[in-house]
Amino acid sequence: MTVASARHILVKTEQQAQDLKNQIAKGADFGELAKKFSDCPSGKKGGDLGEFRPGQMVKPFDDVVFKESVLDVHGPVKTQFGYHLIQTIYRN
Question: Is the pTM of this model over 0.90?
């Protein structure tokens, strides 16, 4: 069965997510930004969600983690929780 590990940053607005993505593109540390800005409890761990299987996360999130490129930062991805920046660490 496929498993993946990912980290994310969850914020309230698409604009904030895009701003953070731009900062990461310029070299800011994903984990540090997650600790500072993420609305998810995982932010304390740098956004790390650990390992999970398809279907354990909401569909838009799942689609990125299990279909898009690994290690790139994807988003903003809208879910009922807000806007995510998502980085898949590995998938197998």
Answer: yes
